[in-house]
Every structure is written in C-alpha cells, then in structure tokens.
Amino acid sequence: MTSQPTQSQCTRRKRCSRRRILAIWLTSLLCSLGASYTWSAQQGSTGTSSSGDITINYIQGLNTRITGFRDMPLGTWSGTGPLTANDNLCIGRSGVGFFGSGAYRILAQGDGEPGDPSAFTLSNGATRISYNAYFNDQTGTANRQQLTAGQQLTGQSGFGFWMVLNLIFGCSVNNANISIEVPASELASGIGTYTGTLTLTLIPE
Amino acid sequence: MSASRLILAFICCLLSVPTNAATLQITELQDVNLGEVPLGTDRVRQRMRFCVAMNPGGPFQITAFGNQVDGRFVLSNGLGLEQGISFDLYASSRARGRGRRLTPGFPLTGLNARPPRPNGECRPPFVQMRVIVDRNDLRTAGSGRYSAQIELTVAPE
Questions:
Q1: Taking a C-beta distance cutoff of 8 angstroms, is the pair A68, A88 a contact?
Q2: Residues of A in contact with B148 (CB under 8 A)
Q3: Rounded to 5, what percent of chain B is helix, strand, coil?
Q4: How close B145 comes to chain A (CA, Å)?
Q5: Which pLDDT tens digit goes with each residue over A64-115?
Q6: Could you please report the per-residue DSSP string of A76-119?
Q7: For residue A195, which of A148, A128, A112, A137 has the smallest C-alpha distance?
Q8: Best mutation site among A51, A53, A59, A60 for testing chain B: the one with the most B CBs within 10 Å?
C-alpha cells in the first residue's frame, strides 16, 4: 500500500528538486568556466586560410629580497652646495652559491613628472625639483653608479653567502647602498618642504 | 578591343579562378603553460597539438607571428623587448619527430591535413607544435611572469 506523501515530504521533495536544479546549474556554470579557461586560445574559422591565437606563459622562479630601507632626511638647505643622503641596503636572492657571486639589476623609479612617470622628483605640493640617484653594489658611496629613472641598472653583483643570508633572514649584512643628491641649482628654485618616494626593484640575473 | 581579345581574356580569367578552392580550419588550439622554472634549468620544453582540417585534404603551410616587434618569438615580462626571453617553435604534421623550426612571418610548408570526420571532429594526424626555450635565453632573464601571444595562420599550398 502506497502512502500519500505528507505536506512536509512534498516540501522537502520540492526543496530537493530545487537543490538538484541548483546543483546542475552550478555544475554547468563551473564546467563552462572550466571550458573557457581551457580554451582561452582563439580558434580559427573555416575559409581559404584560417588563423588562431595561443598564449604562452612562463614564470622565471627566483626569490629576491631587498631590505634595510630607511627614510633619508636631507635637512635644511643652507643656500650653498647640494644636499645629499645615503642609506646602506641588504640585497638577497636565491639561485646563487655560498661562495659564488650573485648578479642582479636595479630598477629605480621616482615620483615622476609630466612626460616622465619615473623621474626622480621631490614635491612641495605645488612645484617639483629634480634629484640624482645613485646605486652601489657595496656599502658606502665610493664607486657608485648613477641611476636613470625607469631604466634598469645592470651588472650589479654581491657575495653569495651574504645574499642568501639576506634572503632568508632579512637585512643581515649590508651589501649595497642607495644615495641621492639634490643639486644646488634645483634647491635654489624651490621654497618649502619637499618630499618624494624612490622605489627600487631588485631583478636577479 | 577585338572580339578575339575579349574571348582570350575571358578564357584567361576562367583559368586563373580556382573553381574548387580548398577550405581549412585551425581548431583545438590551447594555451601553453611552461610553468615555473628555477634558475639553472638547461632548457624548457612543452608540446602542444592542434587540429587543421582541410577539405579536400592535402598539403598546407603554417605561418606564425609573435606579438613583439617583427613578429619575433619573445616572452615578455612587460619591461621591454630587451628584457624578454626568446623561444623557438617547431611544427610537424607527424605524430613523432622533432618537427621543423618556424621562422616568424615565414610559412613552413609541406605539412599535411585531412578532411574532418562527417560529425565535424578532427581526423588525425594532429599538428604537433613544440615550444623550446634554451639555456642561454633563460640565463639572462630576470625573475617574474612572462607571456607571449602567437598568431598561427594556415593556408593550402
């Protein structure tokens, strides 16, 4: 003898049915998303010639770490000579032997100015003044090299063991230096408090 | 123009227009993920295959263009062409073998395609394509994500 379903059973069945529809809808949505991911390449159409597109992706896997940054207060200009400041940094990277030499590049970018989004500039909110930036792959400023805004400074290197320490433990051994110089000619053209941000990107070679 | 010249021109026109031009289609293309590669890797290789269906079947050629200057095959990290990683493409319509190297913008000839099945499915052999990045190109590259887009064009021979 078949019993008639109760009101609650009917409700449950409807819910089950709705859930099933929802599950099917979600599954088909996920399948379509999956399919669109798999076939993100562009397929060709039929004709006397046919063209399609593929994308090739690649990740160069090296870890890097640049630490030891401090703000560089330039002080108050006395009215003569440039203002300068420098800061020792810690460069770390993987893929280098303990007793080897790890090569890297530095990309430097300032706050920019119209026509040059990476220019090394300080601003008081109304006007900008330019400064020069230098990088050294050892501590101190002797033998430093001038940076060009937005361009990579190649050919930098460090002792492997220090680089590995800096990578793993953060700033352990200073092995680089960043320095800036605001020429007197720029300082003479400005009044007020000027600030700026200098961004360094470490790119292992 | 005399009537004989008109007739001659008409015959030449008939001869130059192919009455049964082959049609073809490139499909089943997939993106190629070379993965994340640690420093010191000698060579990165990845194989892919795609379908070229041609009706009627016969020889065809394939031309590849990269999305960089001059159509070069370069993986870019967005920092300019000189920071990119060059790679090579090889193609073959045989199931085995290394294939022949593609030169950007120049057709690679002598490949063979068959008509599709009645249900539209591709009929083997598929075109085998290999992407190869050599050690020298990897050694000078900085870390990060790189990508390249390749346009593949097939045409009957």
A1: yes
A2: 55-56
A3: 15, 45, 40
A4: 4
A5: 889 999 999 999 999 999 999 999 999 998 777 788 888 888 999 999 999 9
A6: ---SSS-EEEEEEEEEEESS--TTSEEEEEEEEE-S-BTTBTT-
A7: A128
A8: A60
Mind telling me how many Å the CA of A128 is from chain B's nearest CA? 27
- pLDDT tens-digit series, residues B79-131: 766 778 999 999 998 877 778 999 999 999 999 999 988 888 888 889 999 99
Burial class (CB in 10 A: 0-12, 13-18, 19+), B46: middle
Please give the structure tokens belonging to residue B26: 């490139």
Q: Name every residue whose Cβ is closer than 8 Å to that of residue A25 and which is 6 or more positions away in sequence.
A: none
Q: Extract the tokens encoding B140.
A: 């000078």
What backbone phi and psi angles, to 5 degrees, belong to A54? -130, 155
Residues 6+ apart with CB under 8 A from B32: A54, A55, A56, A57, B46, B48, B131
B102 contacts on A by Cβ (under 8 Å)? none
Interstrand relation of B74-75 and B85-86 (parallel, antiparallel or unpaired): antiparallel
Amino acid type, A69 = F
* Amino acid identity for residue A133 in this structure: A
- How many Å separate Cα B51 from the centre of its chain? 11
Half-sphere exposure of B155 (CA within 13 A, CB side): 9
Residues 6+ apart with CB under 8 A from A133: A108, A110, A120, A146, A147, A149, A178, A179, A180, A198
